[in-house]
UniProtKB/TrEMBL annotation:
The chain holds residues 642 to 895 of 910 of the full protein. Residues 1-254 form the EAL domain. This is Diguanylate cyclase (GGDEF) domain-containing protein. It comes from the Bacteria.
Length: 254
């Protein structure tokens, strides 16, 4: 069976689950939110990581259905944690370009929120920089509709696309997630740090929070504290974990 066929079947059979990776305050280490990352629970191959199927899903258009499943699962998980009496934190969900440009994202999202009675500000949509910067007018209109629902918006993998500063200034986004390639370079020296600091200043001027992705060492964390980066995410804090482990983060066991 080709991967496309298998994926089509998997969407119908709902063979997906979400792992969660915490995002914490850079200084206090307190949990701020969690990123939902999809995994394919394949009956024979076990847990398949997204790198092996997201691009196929994107190319075939299956990502629209898969993305809807992911939003549904994120909202359903939040509702379950609420039933357990846990203090909730926002969950961020990755939105692919095709999903972002599809006409039914708004109805899919409002449907999932409503079915589980989840306040919109508990959901954040991560949209990659390259997707955001394609057609500024169209993107602004789409973002306005999403913001009207009340969800938060972040720019994912920032620094790997090619946004102009004027585009960035026009976009109504809440969070800038700086790509992990910039985090990796932080310990190299002054220039990398100054560069990162400039991104932080720019984001703050534009009223955006800054998240450093891929934080793996204490040294990187300490530099990011000095640079006033708001939040960090990465293996130093935790790798993405199943829902039952993520639940412990909500219980303040991070
Ligand atoms: O979880 P992992 O680090 O293996 O994720 C690899 C890539 O897959 C990342 O770029 C991530 O953004 C993407 N990804 C993970 N989950 C989803 C999802 O639900 N939807 C989309 N569109 N991309 C996802
Ligand atoms: O593109 P996006 O930012 O959504 O990618 C999330 C991906 O990054 C996931 O596949 C996740 O497993 C991975 N990731 C998360 N933290 C780290 C880290 O500290 N180092 C590395 N190398 N990858 C990470
Ligand atoms: Mn992401
Ligand atoms: Na990213």
């Amino acid at each position: 069976l080709g991967i496309e066929q298998a994926l089509r079947h998997a969407v119908k059979a709902d063979e997906f689950l979400l792992h969660y990776q915490p995002r914490v305050d850079t200084r206090s280490g307190e949990l701020r939110s969690m990123e939902a990352l999809v995994r394919w629970q394949h009956p024979e191959r076990g847990l398949v990581p997204p790198l092996e199927f997201i691009s196929v899903a994107e190319d075939t258009g299956l990502i629209v259905e898969l993305g809807a499943l992911v939003l549904e699962k994120a909202c359903s998980q939040l509702a379950e944690w609420r039933r357990m009496g846990l203090p909730l934190k926002p969950v961020s969900v990755n939105v692919s370009p095709r999903q972002f440009n599809s006409d039914n994202l708004v109805s899919t999202l409002t449907g999932a929120l409503a079915r589980h009675a989840i306040p919109a500000d508990l959901v954040e949509l991560e949209i990659t920089e390259s997707c955001m910067m394609s057609d500024t007018e169209k993107v602004s209109a789409s973002l306005a509709k999403l913001k009207a629902i009340g969800v938060r918006i972040s720019v994912d993998d920032f620094g790997t696309g090619y946004s102009s500063l004027s585009q960035l200034q026009q976009l109504d986004v809440d969070v800038l997630k700086v790509d992990r390639s910039f985090t990796r370079n932080l310990a190299d020296g002054e220039q990398s740090q100054a560069f990162f600091m400039t991104i932080v200043s720019m984001a703050h001027i534009l009223d955006m929070q800054v998240v450093a992705e891929g934080v793996e060492t204490v040294e990187q964390l300490e530099i990011l504290q000095d640079l006033s980066c708001n939040e960090v995410q990465g293996y130093l804090i935790s790798k993405p974990v199943p829902a039952n482990e993520a639940e412990q983060f909500l219980r303040k066991k991070l």
